[in-house]
Write a structure and sequence with these properties.
Layout: H1 3-29, H2 40-44, H3 52-61
Length: about 60
């Protein structure tokens, strides 16, 4: 394994964990949530994000945890 593949593997495990937690919330509350990890720089300067409108919608409608 290379360091890049280890990093990719860790990222996949992290995203799988977020998916599992979101599913648990759905089962327990009926609320569907879609976790989206963002870099702090993308949040601070959304113009650098590929979809700045998404960050604007998250700021407007999202729930900060």
């Amino acid at each position: 394994m290379t360091p890049d593949s280890l990093t990719l593997d860790a990222a996949r495990r992290f995203l799988d964990t977020l998916d599992d937690l979101a599913y648990d919330v759905l089962l327990e509350t009926g609320i569907h949530m879609q976790p989206l990890p963002l870099w702090q720089d993308d949040w601070d300067v959304p113009e650098t994000f590929p979809n700045p409108g998404l960050i604007a919608a998250i700021r407007r409608e999202g729930v900060s945890l």
